[in-house]
Amino acid sequence: MGQSKPYRAKALVVEDDPMQREMIGLLLEESEFDVITCESAEAAELVLQGNGDNVVLMMTDVELAGHMTGVELAHAAKKYRPDLDVIVTSGKPLRQRLPEGALFWAKPWAPLDVIRVAEMKASELSHRGWRRSS
């Protein structure tokens, strides 16, 4: 019989720039997260509605493909999952209010910032009894 894979926390990356999306995804995978990527807020909202229970971290740009902004997505995500860690990024000043508990990162941010947040979240989850793969 095959071995079951240890459960890994999921991160949702919402970014319309393919290079940024890939870089963020790789950084989170290095921190032992399974990563779901979307280029629009509408696609990300479908993920959250479908299997959003497994998503513990979401990082989104403000300006995305589609009609919905990353700030609007942050509000929707917090309605589905109030405990979801949300990071909203933009190269421009933020014009809309973020939901309570969401963080704003001005671009350019350092890749090490993503790793730090991922490692802090992973540590928090391991203290709550989530298993990380070795």
Task: Explain what you see.
The model has no long low-confidence stretch (mean pLDDT 90). Helix 1 (18-30) packs across helix 4 and helix 2 (41-51) packs parallel to helix 3 (70-80). The chain has one domain: Response regulator (Rossmann fold), CATH 3.40.50.2300. The chain has four helices and five strands, in the order βαβαβαββα. It starts with 9 loop residues before the first strand and ends in a 7-residue tail after the last helix. The protein is globular and about 35 Å long. 33% of the residues are buried. It has helices at residues 18-30, 41-51, 70-80, 111-127; strands at residues 10-14, 34-38, 55-61, 85-90, 103-106. With 134 residues, the protein is α/β, with parallel strands linked by helices.
List keywords for this structure.
134 residues; alpha/beta; Rossmann fold; 5-stranded parallel beta sheet; 5 strands; 20% strand
